């Protein structure tokens, strides 16, 4: 069988090709097209020889005839290279034998009758479809229906030179010499569905992007316009840093990104740590407004007090904004004499008569050191930790010594203490010689002086440094909404920006990589890398409570030995009870050689007991008390009082038991070792209860009481008699 090539664009359609009139398929003579409703019959030889298709086959010089099966027999199916004058086509030998064995039976016309019969039904080609087309006048004699003939194609084909033996046709090659003209084929339904799906998906995506963009734009506009109003963020800060933070808040409110449909509105109020601590563990004070979303205390010592009382679940994060070392603000002449001193020697300088005279300052007497707890950025708390760390044996006892002996003129406020230090014309006679404070507070106070270097100096004790770290404490309390917490986080990040850090450094705080202003009083270059080690939250809270009983006051269970000289004891106790805050809680238990009695339960002094304020009830009970004989069941009484103290425990306050006894104990069921083990096992870091002991006279139980006080974190004080000045001093210090 010969080669099948595709006609060139400029070739005329050979005889036998189809002429397609508008709206129909045209079947040329010789095609195997079965008219609707009839069988295809092969033409006889005479008819075939005269047909147009025969002209085409004649060009090859082959003898063509119809075989009995109705197919054209070309005699030989082989071609040779000499017969092919085409230079571009492969040699005919490449196809030799490939198709020659395919007989007529393989391509019988009946195989195709059903395939095309439906495509060319009479109903598809009515005469009306051709009304607009002129009649050519010529018809094929082989067709009775007078199908129009295309004589111009026939004549052109006869005259056209033969370029090759290739068979050209617009029809479909069937594997034989026959060409089957294809009907119009429709587009696959799957392709159409796929195209529609793609278009639909693209359309939906475009619409989604459009409407999403519109909604985003609307949300942005709504948020930018704060359609839902402001989201208020309450911030309380240590007074030393509150002013700077308030300035930052004003800038932030003008620049902050919206939180949903709300605009952040940060408001900053100054508040001392003890006020905030008392409000968080108790009732929030109304004068501080809403409970805060952010708290910036002077140090993590205040955070430890809150966590010791409430646990860590209230605090979401705590990050230091700036720092400032704790030091002593002193007169310049005193600074020169403190070179060999440190934190551990301060309690001795505070209490030893003429201690400063011995340092080369005649006429100065003892050190008068103030430890203010108001407006001083937790400096007193941090100094207590430094003193305790420098003298582990003395611990809290040294702190209590400083607190009890500090000058009355100092008051509780840092401003009051500074005034007492600076206003005196005679430094030696000044009511205050030194003030525990921060470097930043000293720097700010120096800026108010005309000649600060002449009247004020700062002494940083050698060794580990106590540092106020000003943490930004973010809460997650149930009083906060999600929008408030989000706005708070945004504000906290805002505070960490370099320009804000620079402003803090200019205010006298130490900030990493930020220079501080020049000062003749403060040495900002002193290293503070070696810092005082601190304990856990409970230990820090216990030590801080020694210096400061918050607004809720202190809770004290008095355990009094009735074998003492009650006349002197009664007078000292009544004086102290009268001086205590109404919010302080006090109870009284007495004991003798045979039993103990709870005379007045523990509770606030302002509460009524038996129709009178508890303070009056306590004083009346003491006035009516009589002394007992010798002996005391002090050990078993302490066990009972500890149980009551745990029940009456007040978070955020100093909770203690004050034992006043002269011994010896006469308990039969509980000895010295048993008592110490009892106290040791009852220690609860979350609810610390100190046991403070005033041991009167020569008591053989003294070692036991000293151990009990030490185990509980309390203090032991031995006095010669209940009517001695030492007794009154100890009582003033421990019942406050």
Automatic annotation (TrEMBL):
Record field: transmembrane: 191-211
SMART domains: VWA
Keywords: Membrane, Transmembrane, Transmembrane helix
Top-level taxon of origin: Bacteria
Annotated spans, Disordered: 1-102, 115-177
Pfam families: SBP_bac_11
Biased composition range(s): Basic and acidic residues: 53-62
Keyword presence, Chaperone: no
Compositional bias of kind Low complexity: 155-164
Bias (Acidic residues) ranges: 41-52, 80-92, 116-132
Presence of keyword Cell membrane: no
Protein name per Swiss-Prot or TrEMBL: Uncharacterized protein
Organism: Mycolicibacterium fallax (Mycobacterium fallax)
């Amino acid at each position: 069988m010969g080669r099948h090539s595709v006609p060139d664009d400029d070739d005329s359609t050979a005889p036998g090709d189809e002429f397609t009139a508008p709206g129909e398929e045209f079947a040329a003579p010789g095609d195997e097209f079965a008219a609707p409703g009839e069988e295809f019959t092969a033409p006889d030889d005479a008819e075939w020889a005269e047909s147009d298709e025969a002209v085409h086959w004649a060009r090859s010089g082959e003898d063509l005839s119809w075989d009995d099966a109705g197919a054209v027999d070309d005699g030989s199916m082989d071609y040779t290279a000499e017969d092919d004058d085409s230079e571009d086509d492969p040699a005919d030998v490449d196809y030799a034998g490939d198709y020659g064995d395919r007989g007529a039976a393989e391509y019988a016309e009946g195989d195709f009758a059903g395939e095309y019969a439906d495509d060319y039904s009479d109903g598809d080609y009515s005469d009306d479809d051709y009304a607009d087309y002129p009649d050519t006048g010529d018809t094929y004699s082989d067709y009775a229906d007078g199908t129009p003939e295309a004589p111009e194609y026939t004549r052109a084909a006869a005259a056209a030179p033969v370029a090759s033996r290739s068979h050209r046709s617009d029809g479909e090659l069937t594997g034989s010499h026959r060409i089957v003209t294809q009907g119009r084929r429709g587009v696959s339904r799957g392709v159409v569905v796929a195209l529609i799906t793609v278009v639909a998906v693209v359309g939906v995506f475009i619409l989604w992007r459009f409407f999403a963009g519109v909604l985003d734009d609307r949300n942005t506009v709504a948020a930018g316009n704060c359609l839902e109003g402001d989201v208020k963020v309450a911030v309380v800060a240590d007074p030393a840093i509150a002013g700077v933070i308030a300035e930052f808040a004003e800038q932030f409110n003008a620049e902050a990104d919206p939180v949903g449909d709300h605009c952040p509105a940060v408001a900053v109020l100054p508040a001392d740590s003890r006020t905030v601590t008392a409000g968080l563990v108790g009732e929030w004070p109304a004068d501080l407004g809403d409970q805060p979303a952010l708290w910036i205390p002077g140090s993590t010592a205040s955070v430890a007090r809150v966590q010791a009382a409430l646990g860590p679940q209230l605090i979401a994060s705590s990050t230091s904004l700036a720092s400032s070392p704790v030091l002593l603000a002193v007169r310049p002449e005193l600074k020169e004499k403190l070179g060999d001193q440190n934190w551990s020697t301060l309690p001795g300088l505070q209490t030893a008569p003429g201690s400063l005279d011995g340092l080369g300052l005649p006429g100065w007497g003892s050190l008068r050191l103030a430890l203010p707890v108001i407006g001083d950025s937790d400096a007193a708390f941090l100094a207590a930790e430094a003193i305790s760390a420098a003298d582990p044996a003395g611990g809290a006892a040294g702190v209590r010594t400083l607190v009890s002996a500090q000058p009355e003129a100092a008051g509780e406020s840092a401003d009051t203490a500074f005034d007492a230090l600076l206003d005196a014309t005679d430094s030696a006679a000044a009511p205050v010689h030194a003030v525990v404070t921060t470097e930043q507070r000293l720097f700010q106070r120096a800026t108010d002086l005309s000649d600060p270097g002449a009247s004020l100096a700062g002494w940083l004790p050698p060794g580990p440094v106590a540092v106020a770290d000003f943490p930004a404490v973010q809460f997650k309390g149930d009083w906060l909404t999600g929008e408030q917490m989000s706005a708070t986080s945004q504000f906290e990040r805002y505070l960490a920006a370099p320009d804000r850090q620079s402003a803090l450094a200019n205010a006298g705080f130490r900030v990493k990589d930020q220079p501080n202003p020049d000062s003749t009083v403060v040495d900002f270059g002193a290293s503070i890398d070696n810092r005082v080690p601190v304990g856990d939250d409970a230990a820090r809270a216990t030590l801080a409570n020694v210096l400061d009983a918050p607004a809720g006051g202190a809770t004290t269970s008095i355990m009094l030995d009735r074998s003492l000289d009650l006349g002197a004891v009664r007078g000292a106790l009544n004086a102290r009870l009268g001086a205590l805050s109404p919010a302080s809680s006090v109870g009284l238990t007495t004991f003798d050689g045979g039993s103990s009695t709870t005379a007045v339960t523990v509770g606030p002094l302002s509460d009524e007991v038996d129709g009178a304020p508890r303070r009056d009830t306590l004083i009346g009970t003491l006035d009516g008390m009589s002394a007992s004989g010798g002996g005391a069941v002090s050990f078993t009484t302490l066990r009972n009082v500890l149980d009551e103290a745990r029940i009456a425990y007040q978070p955020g306050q100093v909770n203690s038991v004050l034992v006043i006894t002269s011994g010896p104990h006469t308990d039969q069921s509980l000895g010295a070792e048993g008592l110490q083990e009892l106290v040791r096992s009852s220690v609860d870091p979350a609810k610390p209860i100190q046991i403070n002991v005033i041991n009167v006279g020569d008591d053989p139980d003294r070692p036991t009481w000293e151990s009990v006080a030490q185990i509980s974190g309390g203090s032991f004080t031995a006095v010669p008699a209940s009517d001695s000045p030492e007794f009154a001093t100890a009582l003033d210090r421990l019942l406050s």
